[in-house]
Amino acid sequence: MSLSSTESKLVNTNHPIASVPNAVTVIRILLIPLFVTFLQSESYLYALLVFLLAAVSDGLDGFLARYLDQRTTLGAFLDPLADKLLILTAFVGTTILRRVSPWLTIIVISRDLVIFLGATFFTVTRTRFEAIPSPWGKATTALQMVTICLVLLSPLVSIANEIKTVFFFGTAIITIISGGHYTLVGTKIYRDNLSRSQG
Fold it and tell me: Which residues form the domain of 66?
């Protein structure tokens, strides 16, 4: 997601259908323990199927929220949280099983840690910002998910190591770029807020 200092456009509503996108997000979170169970037992086919289902739900809840015009504050919090939990769990789990290189997982974790610390700093300093999706963030999430799918698929079918290496380095590069992008945007927002408060 990207950062913006504009007013939030999130909509709170008591209409029953408003719970549908959030329910999809909650289901994605609940799929994570099942994914871990299959991963621990090295049941890669089932782990892949569960991960794919969770990945599809990532796009589905966002689509439903926009289509039904039911974007809520809770949904804005749960959706990225579910993404981070799913992706970090997948990278850590596959690294433990020696399917993913540790250096890549460290990069993925470090980028998310930087974003989390930045958001925490903004909250503590009461810096106004709005978390909205950015092209870099979407591309990073998509490539990370594709990479995990490739890793889970590799024990089932023959995949050249060169292909996995390309995806590993591609994921690392775009993860670093998006982390740098968020850092630059966050720094600008903080300076703008500081200038307004001093003015």
Answer: 2-198
